[in-house]
Amino acid sequence: MKPCPFIAVEGAIGAGKTTLATMLSDRFDIPLLKEIVEENPFLDKFYQNIEEWSFQLEMFFLCNRYKQLEDTGLQYVSRHQPVISDYHIYKNLIFAQRTLKGVKLDKYRQIYHLLTEDLPKPNIVIYIRASLETLQKRIEMRGRDFETAIDPAYLQQLIEDYETAFAELAEREPETTIITVNGDEMDFVEHPEHFEHIVRQVKELL
């Protein structure tokens, strides 16, 4: 039996993950799983002092995403019902490996692998690749106060981390189909034809 679609949309901060995931959810009429971001009580402190608050921030995200995906497995995947999310759990390692060091990183990796080893994994991932300039414009447009403190150097490093991580993900999970969207050239919000191009790519896999 062909596995039921579990689609994840990914990309660095400001890439447009939630926007695209919501648009696809509406188009294909499938449930949307949205990550918790602004509800994280450590975000403001993290962007002011990354080293001091990174472990608390990453653990909050990990535990919340674990719970969401555990519920998703029970509600949709195990019942062969399609679902789309605006994140892949693998992103937790992308961020943690950038912000955590030494013993804290080792502990985090152990907890991550323990929690995620039996979670449902997306079989289709849409990766929005975008430059620093594009991300900064989109971050400014959505106007989240806590994101105004993001260091451009941190954001640029995150872009590079995502590139490395998705190359690794393609090797680690060869059964996962990755669709790469050029976020600098494609504006799926302002240009309907750009969104339709993505829709056609997803339809071919469905």
How would you describe this structure to a colleague?
GO terms for molecular function: kinase activity. Residues 7-205 form the Deoxynucleoside kinase domain. Keywords: Kinase, Transferase. InterPro entries: DCK/DGK (IPR002624), Deoxyribonucleoside_kinase (IPR050566), DNK_dom (IPR031314), P-loop_NTPase (IPR027417). This protein is α/β, with parallel strands linked by helices. Helices cover 55% and strands 11% of the residues. The protein has a 5-stranded parallel beta sheet with strand order 2-3-1-4-5, with helices on both faces. α3 (50-75) runs parallel beside α5, α4 runs antiparallel to α5 and α4 (91-99) packs across α7. The longest helix has 26 residues, at 50-75. The protein is globular, with a radius of gyration of 17 Å. The two termini are 13 Å apart.
State the end-to-end distance.
13 Å
For the largest beta-sheet, the strand count, sense and barrel status come to: 5 strands, parallel
Secondary structure: number of strands: 5
- The structural domain count equals 2
* Average pLDDT rating: 89
Radius of gyration: 17 Å
Q: Please tally the helical runs, counting DSSP H or I stretches of 4 or more residues.
A: 8
Low-confidence stretches: none
Helix and strand string, N-terminal first? EHEHHEHHEHHEH
Per-chain topology:
Blueprint (H helix, E strand, L loop, with lengths): L5 E6 L5 H12 L3 E2 L9 H6 L1 H26 L7 E3 L5 H9 L2 H15 L7 E6 L2 H11 L9 H21 L4 E6 L9 H14 L1
Parallel strand pairs: 1-3, 1-4, 2-3, 4-5
